[in-house]
Automatic annotation (TrEMBL):
PROSITE patterns: GLUTAMATE_5_KINASE (PS00902), PUA (PS50890). It catalyses: L-glutamate + ATP = L-glutamyl 5-phosphate + ADP. One of its GO terms (biological process) is L-proline biosynthetic process. Pathway: Amino-acid biosynthesis; L-proline biosynthesis; L-glutamate 5-semialdehyde from L-glutamate: step 1/2. Keywords: Amino-acid biosynthesis, ATP-binding, Cytoplasm, Kinase, Nucleotide-binding, Proline biosynthesis, Transferase. The gene is proB. Substrate binds at residues 61, 149, 161. It is found in: Cytoplasm. Residues 287-368 form the PUA domain. The lineage of its organism: Bacteria, Pseudomonadati, Pseudomonadota, Alphaproteobacteria, Sphingomonadales. GO terms for cellular component: cytosol. This is Glutamate 5-kinase. PANTHER family: GLUTAMATE 5-KINASE, ISOPENTENYL PHOSPHATE KINASE.
């Protein structure tokens, strides 16, 4: 695996935001107990990453494996959906409290987010997830995400934290995702086959790549097997985010995995992320914003669209719509996802951020279009 790319994961200049997903097979032992000592080494690595200026979001599985043991549902894969969901609701309490106490040992604050894949399909929910994650990271908090198992259903493929990790990465505009698991990466066939060979780098998750994966979990503790990880790699690829599948069966698995270079790295084909391409490619709009020269300059240096720079608001758009941004000469300079409904933007346009709460009567967003959801043309 190209060492320079691995370096990117460790380099806070290149990888400022990292999502680390930990599978059940790593986190929980055969007796349904959290491997606390091992997890403490992971938390130490998270601490080190934060110290060097990176931001880390954790996606942690394990609730079902922990809860099933507590409830005596020990018949593995034959659990009913209701048994798995009951197990998750019991296990999640232990899981969250373990994360919280281990992070507290390093004086870090944990946040719990329980999400379903479906939440990411709804624009407003997506924007709320995105804003919450960004705000937590800004405060130095470590968000710990798991699937909201009780309300997940079979149709949206219950039990898929791999895809959830990729969606979380997309929502918080992360630079990289590491899926820690109990194998060294993707093999060209099931790793139990002695002929199996590991792939170091994949550009494009093709049908041929999908055919290599087996859907079952090796340990019986996880749920999606390698198939779920490839679906996650596809989401990351479309969003322009690098994703690595790495073995986490050691102490300090992140550092070891990176230094040992074992793993499979999935690289996006395009430089422009799928989401940015989706924003930039939009042709039909429900409205538009015109901004002053100061705002144009700010956007060009990577800032967000703030209400104070808005001169004109057109159309009756909703929060989550994509809008074009014009300069004073009616030149379209950017497109982005708007954080407010049209009437709110009309009310706060030209006003500085301190005045927004009084005008709106609720806590304002950090921007009208956040730079993470803005594409300059
Ligand atoms: N082509 C493949 N390469 C690597 N692992 C594979 C492959 N096909 C199936 N697997 C299985 O996928 C398992 C990892 O998935 P899973 O058990 O769901 O892990 P986790 O709980 O970490 O999400 C491995 O232990 C392995 O048995
Ligand atoms: N939400 C479930 C995990 C589902 C899942 O994707 O598990 P895994 O394949 O071990 O990452 C739980 O906490 O048990």
């Amino acid at each position: 695996m190209a060492i320079d790319i691995l370096d990117d994961f460790r380099n806070p200049e290149k990888c400022r935001r990292l999502v680390i997903k930990i599978g059940s097979a790593l986190l929980v032992d055969g007796a349904g107990q959290v491997r606390v000592e091992w997890l403490r080494t992971v938390v130490n690595e998270v601490f080190t990453a934060l110290e060097r200026g990176q931001e880390v979001v954790v996606v942690s599985s394990g609730a079902i494996a922990i809860g099933a043991k507590q409830l005596g549902f020990t018949h593995g894969g034959k659990r009913t959906l209701a048994e798995a969901q009951a197990s998750a609701s019991v296990g999640q309490i232990s899981l969250a409290s373990t994360w919280s106490s281990l992070l507290t040992e390093r004086r870090l604050v944990a946040a719990q987010l329980l999400l379903t894949l479906d939440d990411f399909e709804h624009r407003r929910r997506y924007l709320n997830i995105s804003a919450t994650l960004r705000r937590l990271l800004k405060s130095g908090v470590v968000p710990v995400v798991n699937e909201n198992d009780t309300i997940s259903t079979g149709e949206i493929r219950f039990g898929d934290n791999d895809r959830l990790a990729a969606r979380v990465a997309q929502a918080c505009d992360a630079d990289g995702v590491i899926l820690l698991t109990d194998v060294d990466g993707l093999y060209d066939r099931h790793p139990d086959d002695p002929e199996a060979e590991r792939l170091e780098e994949v550009r494009g998750v093709t049908d041929e790549i999908h055919a290599m994966a087996d859907g079952g979990s090796g340990s019986g503790l996880g749920s999606g097997g390698m198939t779920a990880k490839l679906l996650a790699a596809e989401i990351a690829e479309r969003a322009g985010i690098a994703l690595a599948i790495m073995n986490g069966q050691h102490e300090m698995p992140i550092g070891r995995a990176l230094a040992g270079q074992a793993g499979t790295l999935f690289l996006p084909k395009r430089e422009d992320s799928g989401r940015r391409a989706w924003i930039g490619g939009r042709m039909r709009f429900n409205g538009a914003l015109t901004v002053d020269d100061g705002c144009v300059e700010a956007l060009q240096s990577g800032k967000s669209v703030l209400a104070t720079g808005i001169l004109k608001v057109e159309g009756e758009f909703e929060r989550g719509d994509i809008l074009p941004v014009y300069d004073e000469n009616r030149r379209m300079i950017a497109k982005g996802v708007v954080e407010y409904d049209w009437s709110d933007v009309v009310a706060i346009k030209g006003h500085s951020s301190e005045e927004h709460e009084d005008i709106l009567g609720h806590t304002p967003r950090s921007a009208v279009i956040h730079r993470d959801h803005l594409v300059l043309l």
